[in-house]
Design goal:
heterodimer, A: 312 residues, MetI-like fold, 71% helix, 1% strand, flat, B: 439 residues, alpha/beta, D-Maltodextrin-Binding Protein, domain 2, 2 domains, four-stranded mixed β-sheet, globular
Amino acid sequence: MTLRQPENPATKDGGAPSGVRGWWNRNQRLLIPYIFIAPNVVVFAVFMFLPILLAFYISLNEWTLIGFPTFVGLSNYLDMLEDSEFWRAFYNTGVYTVGTVPTSIALGLAVAVGLNRKLPGRTLLRSIFFVPVIISLVAVALIAAWIFNDNYGIINAALSAVGIGDVPWLSSARWAMTSLIIATLWIRLGFNMVIYLAALQSIPTELYDAARVDGASGWRRFRHITWPLLGPTTFLLVIINIIYSLHVFDLIYVMTGGGPGFSTTVLVQYIYQMAFTEGQMGYASAIGVVLYLLLLIITVFQWRVTRQSENV
Amino acid sequence: MSEGRGTSRLWTRREFLATSAGVGAGLVLLGGCGGGAGGGAGSGSGQLTFQTWASTSGEQKGFRGLVQRFEKENPDASIKLEIVPGEQQYTKLDTRLAAGEGPDLARMQYQAIGRYSSQGALVDLSEYLDGDEASAFTPAFWQAVQYEDTPYALPHHTDTFAVFYNTGMFDKLGIEVPKSLDQSWTWDEFIQVAEQIKGEGVAKYPFAMNWQTAGAAYRWMSFLHQHGGQLLNNDLSGPMIDDSAGIETIAWNQSWFQNDLVPPSTSIKSTELIESLFANETIAMMLQGDWLIPYLVDSMKADWGVTYMIQDVEMASDMGGNAVGVTRDSENPELAAEFVKFIASEEQMAQFCVDAQFIPVRKSLVKQGLDYSMRPKEMTVFVEQSETVPETMAAEQTIPKFNEINQVLADELELAFKEGQSPEKTAKNIASETKEILG
């Protein structure tokens, strides 16, 4: 059978089709993919891209939400440089990020490696570790606030029972951040574990067998096979965890309210305070823009570093 | 390349899938757009939305009762009660106003009115009122709903602070509580009682003050006024807190933390619920509001009582409570104003206050007393105490930019209580930032 041009009802004489129908026929293969992604792109544009642009614009204004915006140029950004509370929030966010990202990834990896072998009750254990991820953050924060409560929390009750005194988990500047980090690790561990588990299972077992035959110990197998092959996964998790940490709000707001003092006030809470408590949407948007640029820089930097190491 | 069979059909399978995907996307977008517009306008001439919070079951009962009774008296009217969590009330209100879809009616604390009235978010109620309101309401609260001498809301109720105490512990220590308002404990007497409790070790900490979280920092001002101080000068144009009265008050509150009289977790920027500490007997006394009575009745096993708020050179207690106003987005401000007048009327205010365990703000009701079903003896203490709310404090707390000053109070007092910032520096910082805010 020979191939022949499909008959086009629009032009009975069999010549080249014309008009919209013709244009569609010629270009449909090119256009159909765009039509399929169109809903997603539109939603993304309206709910993410547009608000980001608006935030840039609002950051150049002063606006209370109830009234009308007044243009003030870059003065919000200049005020930020001199705002000691902003720098404190910035510092706290950094401390929180450094405290949660490497630790939660390391713990997630450790648990993933541990649960990657055939263990009895393996599925149950994996579920137990993952459940915190799907619980509402506010619910976790409330319960954590009770557990860590100085006066009637379970942890202090247990410590007292073994003779160690009360620890001011939430009421001392030194311990408040630690409590938050511990609560966060409990939540993040499961997520990192699941991602690592998936990646671990894609590592061919022959590599391990070959290494074992060559006499490599468990640690050397990990260091020379597992760890390098998990590189892209680790990169992904570092980015995701950094983004989560820079965005933290609910957990801290419910557990400590940003106190004591300013010791646990983080950037997003400061933005919330500025926007809704003090009615300074312009300034809050400016801080939001700074946070956005920070994340952008971190992501680009990470990406570059990983690309270089892949090329080597 | 095979295009499949049936190329003589009008549409190929591919074309069909592509077109329906596009149409589907279009419908989703249209549906999304259409849903948003429905919020503000009522479907008939008598429909109103009322956004409020109701943190206790008593408050919920109170509000639902008001709505039901109003709808009974006005059969053509219907009110949609939108109850939101307390922390969300203002955020939600602000965003709705920004979108031009504000509710017809909104409840707000007296301290919040200034921000909305000064920016035109509330409707001037004078044309709907009868003119005798000024003399009917307790002065501090009528003052609180004014902006530039115009009423933008009607006072609905108040709640105030007094001293709750654990009767078992007090009996054990033989402590006697003041029997009348003028005999309420002075600052020194109060600290003496606290030191006695601490010395005998009957409770982990003597007492705590409910000024958590940052939004409630203004409650500190009761102590300032008790000590004869003021946050702002008499014409509200500049700070006065950095005088000796202000500094001494800060020093006195700071000493609570330095001397272990209060749990370290009960500073301002904390999420500690001191009523839980009182209920589980960690603290022997608490400086707390009457709206926690239902919680204690439900959750506290030990016996407790209430005595008058402490005093110093003057008496002053917290200006709690809320008013209700009509927002600028209301399409039926007349009906909305009718509802506001209804709930602020004598009979309705009395019923609501009894349901929700609040204190009325009409002079007549304060005088006659209300028939509270829960702990009436204790409520009498609060009703008496409500008359000690200073008018000067009411004026200070209702200026338009008070929310910004409140945050300054929260930040600086927190540093004084938790990080040992000196009272002088604290007062100076509050004064200079207040000056900047007032412009």
